[in-house]
TrEMBL record:
Keyword RNA-binding attributed: no
GO MF assignments: carboxylic ester hydrolase activity
Protein's recorded name: Carboxylesterase type B domain-containing protein
Superkingdom of the organism of origin: Eukaryota
Length: 1267
């Protein structure tokens, strides 16, 4: 569905409209479908899953671009390589000649040879209205017969050519780099600036052409990506820079300077918020192997910085598109100098990049700058660029970025403030524009501008294209066979899947960008619409007219067990026919309105009844009346004995639906927090409304003509649904009989106090002091009858107050029904405007309840911590939050994998295990901890008021890379929390052999502990804002080896963007215990010590395989065997220099990197303690150790201090001094020697010879100094 909605249907619509106006003989259009299947799925990689869903969105790109950050280049003779050759030839044929010659049968598309190939009829209705319209597509598939067997992916390139290519163009002179390529070398000119950096006053302004430079521009390396937080990539870290408007030019090295090459300009995709032109993402190797084109790739501004639009000239918008246009202008002026043919430029792109290319076809300035177009998996007719309320979104973003007077200030004032807002804040704000994962798919997008100077797009592109107002160019357009699989990971996460399904009526219209009223059509088309299944009812004779009755149809799962006090879950369906011939139980109740207060019903009660006149002729759809019964929210039901349909059925013109919903304590208990969220009865009603919207058409009802009605509590409920955004789309008229939402009977009360009163009435221990979560847990285990019977004791006297249990004001949590006083919402006009019959009521204020214990819902999931009293000030502690998958089994000795998340609330009330270790610095040296240890702790002052963001300290513990942890018993937060001004994060990371073993190759890459730390930093960048932390003010701190780690993060390109200041306590990356050692030799030594076979000859991969099966405690014990003597060396296992493989943390000696200034510049606080060396003082306290050390000092000291042994001998030690007077009246021995200058070559002297002589004139009077 997603593939049809967002890619296939818009593509076909685009082609259909194109061939209506264009001369397809002169400007042909081709459609392709890329359907080659292999394991190289970029979508799978980005979503971190091995589940294969077919050739998905993005999966054609690895065959067009080398993506070395994700895949090794294909083996030259592999099937994938041959597929790449075909795919590149397809593109190059089109780029160079506007033709497709790879397949003889592939012809330009015309109205005569067009035929539909993918499901899209359903989308016509809500895209183009209800008119009947034909569809066009061409089913010419790139689907070869190549064998799909997988070969080795290792590839070694030849030595690069040393000559640096130089070009002097109109913009200036550039000096690039020759790359060896896969099959053919090519000239790469990286990072050429085409516009001034859009920073400071130029933020949110149209691009300004680059002012030029003197001499040669160094184009030998790529520049920064445009700053982004790519939600499609694991970890979702913020990366890049605002100074990013650069492009890359790639030219075959075979160019002789005579023939001009056709030019291909590539615009990357990424939902307008992610990716870039960097060669690790979109490498040119495959295209350069073809040797017939010049390729240009570019960066353009993304996200809020690239596409924010205020709806007026304050922030005009479309800056990313204008950047692309300026890059095209640069190509037109300069590409001839690189050997390109400026009269043969093909504009190409994928996904959002294809959408951009399509928009350039409709822009008068862009049209002259290219000559052909390739649209891969995207068009400007895609729903993800449908116009939205840009002015409203502008103020929403101003609100999210905490601008003053965001709702009333002028757009110019807000734009001025936004220009000064921290750029990371703007990037992180994008995540808040989503309602759910990829919902909407493109949260910030190109906008329709006014008719001002330099406007890029002033009309809806759908209208422009449909009316033929575009430049006619040859077009190659297509999709992959399973575009929609980019959303498939939702199906792999049970929590996300259930969440989506429960809210499908809310999420799907946002995700697919259509009106909610078409939900029935969409679900019918894709899922058969029969969400409930088949039902068999009963024929009733009625009073005057007969009717069809369908009793007791389940619309929700029974709210029992774990589902008690939870939002309703849609019914999972059934097989065969549901017996709908008799009513089901009422909802469990004690009816205080009836004599004797009868008890009746069941908790399994969420059923509804559908009544239809038997005279219905199946041609005309009948209007629908949904009835919500009365009963003060604690009594009555939909039972036909109470609300029989006979009178309405006698009328014969309407379908009636009645429903049960939870009552009393079971339906309306509310704890004031998320323990028991409340309003379950109202949420039941809402789910029943959704059931009607989905299913009533099958009963003969008109889902576009639904009236919601009710009496008493039912009338109040109806009025509340008018105020609920999710309910509003589910009905069209309202009838409120003897009840509205403004009645004093539902004024807010102290819901938490009532919750505890109920806990007292049912005799729960700790009803007064226990947490609401614990009390709710106990309530779920009680007999439902006991809860129902407690209800009458909430009255002061009989039915006083009338509604002792009532709808409550919820917090802003997932699934909340009512978050504000309905009186306020109604008085301010924030309700759906529908015809209704109602009586008036009044409006007064209310007071909210207070929440407890500390809970946070962040990107990672929801956590529930613990309140700690502290020393001087209390603080909130969130212990043991997982930031990575447990590094056990297959993940031992592997790079860190982000934690996959959890459902519900993570119990963060206690610390988790340390990383397994034997701390030789502590008495006893026992092995403790676990391999499942990648957790962090967050500490927040309890005084935090939720308004001001607090700076963050991330602390990395020391311990020679083999001991200690983040355990609060070792590194407690109390002193820092007493300060009350920061949030503290402490973390565990893998230690010892498990954390720092390195084989010298990719068998065991090494530096796993450092990679764990980096993953924790990424977690902080993504989540800390939700805890009240300022992600733009993170200080990375560490002590000893922890400080060394922090220092290393300053030299790691991935880590650098994740913190802003550094504290190095008694450690740096230049410390001798960090000096590189022979890690490959140490790897085999450890293999020997752990008893592995063939430790000295087996392949490292074989040894690594064996090591994954070794007991973890064995590795811990083995560390001790790496010491020569106590603390000798200080760090027997340490960070290593890795190769240039994916995920490498450190590829050069940090001493060299630091010396050459290749690090991020950040404020640093660094220092030592006065006697840092005292950690070795234990030797001096043990006579045996001291004697052993002194006897072996020439062996031990160089190892302990990490220097070459020769320096012991070569470096003299100053004399220790003497008492009294030294007898300097005679010369001492010569240094031991054999004097070859003297006869007989005498041997004389002594090794004890380091003496000197001083001679002074006796005339010295002590007044002046001699030279």
């Amino acid at each position: 569905m997603y593939g049809d909605r967002c890619f296939c249907y818009p593509m076909v619509t685009m082609v259909n409209q194109y061939i209506t106006y264009a001369d397809v003989k002169k400007n042909p259009v081709f459609i392709y479908e890329f359907a080659y299947e292999s394991e190289y799925s970029l979508a799978n990689l980005l979503h971190n899953t091995e589940e294969y869903f077919g050739v998905g969105h993005l999966d054609d790109l690895p065959y067009l671009f080398t993506m070395s950050s994700n895949f090794q280049p294909f083996e030259i003779d592999s099937p994938e390589s041959r597929m790449s050759d075909i795919w590149v030839r397809t593109m190059v044929n089109f780029v160079a000649r506007g033709e497709i010659k790879v397949w003889r049968t592939l012809r330009p598309c015309t109205t005569e040879n067009a035929s539909p190939t993918c499901d899209r009829q359903v989308f016509e209705r809500y895209t183009n209205g209800d008119q009947d319209e034909s569809f066009v597509s061409i089913a010419n598939n790139i689907d070869t017969d190549i064998c799909s067997s997988i070969l080795s992916l290792n590839f070694k390139s030849e030595k690069p050519i040393s000559l640096q290519p130089e070009v002097c163009a109109a913009s200036g002179c550039v000096r690039g780099k020759v790359e060896s390529g896969r099959k053919k070398p090519y000239d790469a000119f990286y990072g050429i600036p085409y516009a001034e950096p859009p920073v400071g006053k130029l933020r949110f302004e149209s691009p300004v052409p680059y002012s030029g430079w003197t001499g040669y521009w160094d184009a030998s390396y790529p520049r920064d990506d445009c700053i982004q937080r790519n939600g499609s990539q694991p970890g979702q870290i913020t990366s890049g820079s605002e100074d990013c408007l650069y492009l890359n030019v790639y030219r075959p090295s075979t160019w002789k300077g005579v023939k001009k090459f056709p030019v291909m300009v590539w615009i990357h995709g990424g939902s307008f918020i992610g990716f870039s032109s960097k060669p690790e993402l979109f490498g040119p190797e495959y295209i350069m192997d073809n040797g017939e084109v010049i390729l240009v790739t570019m960066n353009y501004r993304l996200g809020i910085l690239g596409f924010l639009c205020s709806g007026d000239e304050a922030v005009k918008g479309n800056f990313g598109l204008k950047d692309q246009q300026m890059a095209l202008q640069w190509v037109a002026k300069n590409i001839e100098y690189f050997g390109g043919d400026a009269s043969s430029v093909t504009l190409s792109g994928q996904s959002a990049g294809a959408t951009s290319a399509h928009l350039h076809m409709m822009n008068s300035k862009s049209q002259a700058l290219f000559h052909r177009v390739i649209l891969m998996s995207g068009t400007a007719l895609a729903p993800f660029i449908y116009p939205i309320d840009y002015a409203s979104q502008f103020r929403t973003i101003a609100n999210f970025t905490e601008l003053a007077n965001y709702d009333t200030a002028s757009t110019y004032t807000l734009a001025y403030q936004l220009k000064k807002t921290n750029v990371t804040t703007l990037v992180l704000t994008v995540a808040r524009l989503y309602a759910f994962i990829s919902t909407p798919i493109v949260p910030i997008r190109p906008c329709i501008e006014g008719n001002w100077e330099d406007a890029f797009m002033t009309e809806d592109p759908r209208k422009l294209w449909a009316e033929g107002r575009y430049v006619q160019k040859p077009i190659l357009v297509g999709t992959v066979s399973k575009e929609g699989t980019t959303l498939s990971p939702i199906t792999l996460n049970e929590f996300l899947l259930q969440l989506f399904n429960r809210n499908i009526y809310d999420y799907l219209p946002i995700q697919m960008e259509f009106q909610p009223r078409y939900m029935s059509d969409v679900l019918t088309y894709y899922f058969g619409g029969k969400k409930c299944g088949c039902v068999r009812g009963k024929f009733e004779s009625g009073r005057k007219k007969s009717y069809d009755a369908f009793y007791g149809i389940p619309y929700a799962e029974p709210p029992v067990g774990k589902l008690r006090f939870e939002s309703p879950v849609p019914y999972s369906g059934w097989t065969g026919y549901w017996d709908a011939s008799y009513p089901r139980d009422d909802c469990l109740q004690e009816n205080l309105y009836l004599p004797g207060y009868p008890i009746s019903g069941s908790e399994d009660c969420l059923f509804l009844n559908v009544y239809r006149p038997s005279s219905w002729n199946r041609k005309k759809k009948l209007p629908v009346l949904i009835w919500i019964h009365m009963g003060s929210f604690f009594a009555f039901s939909s039972n036909p004995a109470l609300v029989g349909p006979e009178y309405l059925m006698d009328n014969g013109e309407v379908i009636l639906v009645t429903m049960n919903y939870r009552l009393g304590i079971l339906g309306f208990l509310c704890s004031g927090d998320e323990a028991v969220k409340g309003n379950f009865g109202l949420k039941d009603q809402q789910l029943a409304l959704k059931w009607v919207a989905t299913n009533i058409e099958y009963f003969g009802g008109d889902s576009s003509s639904i009236t919601l009605a009710g009496h008493g509590a039912g009338g109040i409920s109806t009025n509340l649904h008018m105020l609920n955004p999710k309910s509003q789309a589910l009905f069209h008229r309202a009838i409120m009989m003897s009840g509205v939402a403004l009645t004093p009977m539902i004024y807010p009360i102290d819901f938490e106090a009532q919750f505890r009163k109920v806990a007292k009435l049912i005799e729960l221990p700790d009803w007064e002091a226990g947490t609401t979560t614990n009390l709710a847990y106990q309530m779920k285990k009680l007999d439902g009858l006991k809860l129902i019977l407690a209800h009458k004791y909430l009255f002061l006297m009989l039915k006083t107050p009338p509604f002792s249990l009532r709808p409550c004001i919820e917090g802003d949590w997932e699934g909340a029904f009512m978050t504000e006083d309905p009186r306020t919402v109604w008085a301010e006009g924030r309700f759906v405007h529908k015809p209704f019959v109602v009586e008036k009521s009044s409006n007064i204020s209310f007071k909210k309840s207070i929440l407890s214990p500390p809970e946070v819902c962040a990107e990672c999931g929801c956590v529930r911590g613990v309140f700690e009293s502290g020393r001087k000030k209390p603080y909130d502690a969130f212990y043991g939050i997982p930031y990575a998958e447990p590094p056990v089994g297959k993940l031992r000795f592997e790079n860190t994998v982000p934690h996959s998340g959890w459902s519900g609330y993570w119990d963060a009330s206690y610390p988790r295990d340390d990383c397994i270790q034997s701390n030789v610095s502590l008495p006893g040296q026992t092995t403790s901890g676990s391999e499942d240890c990648l957790y962090l702790n967050v500490y927040r002052p309890s005084t935090w008021n939720g308004k001001k963001k607090l700076p963050v300290v991330v602390y990395i513990h020391g311990g020679s890379f083999l001991s200690f942890s983040s355990n609060p018993d070792q590194f407690g937060p109390e002193y820092i929390m007493d300060n009350g001004e920061v949030i503290l994060v402490t973390l565990n990371y893998r230690l010892g052999i498990l954390g720092f073993l390195c084989s010298g190759d990719e068998a065991v890459k090494g530096n796993f502990g450092l990679k764990d730390q980096q993953m924790a930093l990424q977690w902080v960048a993504t989540n800390i804002e939700y805890f009240g932390g300022d992600s733009s003010s993170v200080t990375l701190a560490g002590q000893s080896s922890g400080a060394s780690c922090a220092h290393l993060h300053m030299m790691n390109s991935k880590s650098q963007a994740l913190f802003h200041r550094v504290i190095l306590m008694s450690g740096t990356a230049l410390a001798p215990f960090m000096y590189p050692i022979d890690h490959a030799a140490q790897f085999r030594t450890i293999a020997n010590l752990t008893g592995l076979k063939d430790f000295d000859t087996a392949a490292t991969y074989n040894l690594a395989y064996q090591m994954k099966k070794v007991d973890a405690a064995t590795f811990v014990e083995t560390v001790e065997l790496l010491y020569t003597f106590f603390a000798t060396p200080p760090a027997p296992i340490r960070p290593c220099i890795e190769g240039d493989w994916v995920g490498a943390f450190m590829t050069e000696d940090p001493r060299k990197v630091w010396a050459e200034g290749r690090y991020v510049q950040k404020p640093i606080l660094v220092g030592t303690v006065k006697n840092d060396g005292a950690s070795l003082s234990l030797i001096t306290l043990n006579e045996d150790l001291l004697d052993q050390f002194n006897r072996n000092i020439y062996n031990f000291l160089p190892i302990q201090m990490e220097f070459q042994p020769r320096y012991i001998y070569e470096s003299p030690v100053p004399h220790s001094g003497w008492s009294e007077y030294w007898d300097a009246s005679y010369p001492r021995d010569n240094c031991l020697q054999k004097n070859y200058f003297l006869p007989g070559q005498p041997v004389s002297g002594s090794e004890d010879c380091l003496y000197l002589n001083v001679y002074r004139p006796s005339t010295w009077k002590g007044k002046r100094n001699f030279r």
